[in-house]
Amino acid sequence: xxxxxxxxxxxxxxxxxxxxxxxxxxxxxxxxxxxxxxxxxxxxxxxxxxxxxxxxxxxxxxxxxxxxxxxxxxxxxxxxxxxxxxxxxxxxxxxxxxxxxxxxxxxxxxxxxxxxxxxxxxxxxxxxxxxxxxxxxxxxxxxxxxxxxxxxxxxxxxxxxxxxxxxxxxxxxxxxxxxxxxxxxxxxxxxxxxxxxxxxxxxxxxxxxxxxxxxxxxxxxxxxxxxxxxxxxxxxxxxxxxxxxxxxxxxxxxxxxxxxxxxxxxxxxxxxxxxxxxxxxxxxxxxxxxxxxxxxxxxxxxxxxxxxxxxxxxxxxxxxxxxxxxxxxxxxxxxxxxxxxxxxxxxxxxxxxxxxxxxxxxxxxxxxxxxxxxxxxxxxxxxxxxxxxxxxxxxxxxxxxxxxxxxxxxxxxxxxxxxxxxxxxxxxxxxxxxxxxxxxxxxxxxxxxxxxxxxxxxxxxxxxxxxxxxxxxxxxxxxxxxxxxxxxxxxxxxxxxxxxxxxxxxxxxxxxxxxxxxxxxxxxxxxxxxxxxxxxxxxxxxxxxxxxxxxxxxxxxxxxxxxxxxxxxxxxxxxxxxxxxxxxxxxxxxxxxxxxxxxxxxxxxxxxxxxxxxxxxxxxxxxxxxxxxxxxxxxxxxxxxxxxxxxxxxxxxx
Length: 654
Hints:
Elements: H1 2-57, H2 60-68, H3 71-88, E1 91-98, E2 103-108, E3 115-116, H4 129-135, E4 142-144, E5 148-149, E6 151-152, E7 155-156, E8 162-171, E9 177-186, H5 188-197, E10 204-208, E11 214-216, H6 236-239, H7 241-248, E12 252-257, E13 260-267, E14 277-280, E15 290-291, E16 298-305, H8 306-327, H9 332-365, E17 369-374, E18 379-382, H10 384-390, H11 394-397, H12 408-424, E19 432-439, E20 445-457, E21 460-469, H13 471-493, E22 497-502, E23 507-510, H14 513-518, H15 522-525, H16 536-547, E24 555-563, E25 569-580, E26 586-595, H17 597-615, E27 621-623, E28 629-632, H18 634-640, H19 644-647
Parallel strand pairs: 4-14
Antiparallel strand pairs: 1-2, 1-9, 2-3, 4-8, 5-8, 6-7, 8-9, 10-11, 10-16, 12-13, 13-16, 14-15, 17-18, 17-21, 19-20, 20-21, 22-23, 22-26, 24-25, 25-26, 27-28
C-alpha cells in the first residue's frame, strides 16, 4: 500500500499544482471580467446623462422660460424638472442658468423628494468655472466637470457629496445662446455600480485618479485626499509604491506581487461618444481650462491581498487532502480519472454559472421589456419589466400570444414586420424596428417602440422582442406641435403688423394684417422693400434704418410714412430687432409695426382748431364745470384789457 500511497501522493501533488494554477487562472479571469463590467457601467451611466441633458435642453417648455420669463412658465418647468429628477434618481441638482449666470430654475433631489428652490435662494453662478466653461460651448456640445466634492456658498458640503457636473448651452430658435442646462450627477451612483458588480469578486475594488488618490476605496477615510488637507498623504501611490509604478504607466494589466494580485483598467470617463465633449481640467474658479476628452484617466483596480490568496490556497489543500485519503481505498487509475472528471466538470460548471449570472443580471435589471417567443408568436419568456409594463404577472405572460399585448389594428402590421425579419435573416439582416400600441391587462393603451430579432436554438427559431414605453416621448412631441401651432395662430390672427426682412431690406414674411392696412396682397409685397410703398421723399429719410445690417441695435418707435394701394397716406410706427445666425452674424431684421394714421389725423384736426380759435375776431373764453377760466383767446385780452396771468384760474364772475 505504501508504494500506492506514494504514487497517489505524487499524483495529488501534481493535482495540487494543477488546481492551484487553474484556480488562480479562473480567479484572474473573474477579476478581469469584474473590472470590465464596472467600467462599462460607468460609461453607460455617462451616456445616459449626456442623452438626458441634450434632450431636456431642447424641450419646448424650457424655451418658453427664456422667451417670457414669467412665473407661470417657470413653475411649469420646475414641475417638469422635479418629475424628471424623481424618475431618474441620479441627479442631485437640475438647473437652468441664464446667460448672465443667474439660476432661473433649480430643483434639488432632496433624498428622493425633489423640491424647487425659491427665488431668494437662487444663486449667481457667473463666477464658477463650470458656468464659464459651459457658456463657451456650441450647440449640443457637452461640458463635464472633474469628479470632486460639492461646494455650496464657497464651502465643501458635509456630509461629503461626490459630484460630476454635466452642462450644455441652451439656444433659442434663432440660434442665440440663452443660458445653460446643468446636471449635478451624484457620484454615489458610481460607488453603487462598483459595489454591486464587485459581489462576484474576492478583491477590494478601488478607483484612482491620475495622481494615485482614491476616488473610491473600501475605507472611506482614504478618499478625496487631493481635496481634503487632512487626507493629503492618503494615496495608493504612497501606500503601494511598487504596484503604483506598474499601474501608472499602463492602460490595463494584471500582475502578482508579494502583497497580492492587482487587476486594473484605465478608464477614460469622457471618451465615449462622437458628440463633442469638453471638461474642465481644474476645479477652482480661477485658471479653468477646457481640455480634450482623452486627457482624463482613472484607474479601476481589483486588489486581492496575499492573505486572501493564501486562504483560497488553504481551502484547496484541505480539499485535496480529503481526496488523497479517499483515493487510498480505490485503485490509482480510477482515482486519477475520477479526479480529472470532477475538475473538468467544476471548471465547466463555473464558466456556465458565470455566463448565466451575466445574462440573468441584464435580463432581470433591464429597464426595457424583453420577450422571447416562438415562431408561432407564443411567449416563452418575459422579464420583470414586461410584467410591470403590461400589469401582468410573469407567470401569466408565459404561454400567452404576443398579439394579446398589441392593439388589434396593429397586429397584422407587427406580424408583417416579423415575416420581413425572418426573410431578411438569409441576407444577414437580423433586426427590425416597429412601433405599435400596447394593451395593458386593464385595457389601457400606450405607445410602444419595439426592436425585433431572431435566433436559432437547435432546430427551433425564436424571436426576441425588446419593448420601450414611448408615452413620455410622444407627449413631449405633442406638446411641441401644440406650441408651434399656437404660435402660428397668434401671428396669423394678430392685428399688429408682423414682418421680417433680409439684409437688403426685402420682406421675407408678412402676416395677414398688412393686407388690411395697405390694401396690397402679401404676394404683391413679399420680395419688395418697405421703401417700395413710400413716397420718394419718405423713402430717402427712412431707407438707411433697415439697410444698415451691421448695426445690431434695437429700433423702437420709428415712424414711417407709407402709401397704400389706393394712394392714401398710412403712418406706421416700427419696432425692430436684428436676426442673428448661429455665428452671431446679422442676417436680417424682424419686428412689428402699428398703424397710427387715425392718431395722426386727430392731431392734425386739433392743431387746425387751435389755430382757428386764435384768429377768430370775437372773444372766446373756456372754463371748467365750476366756472374757473382755463383759456381765453387774444381777442379777449385785447377787448377787456386783462393779461393772461390775471384771468387764468379766476372765476368767470369776476
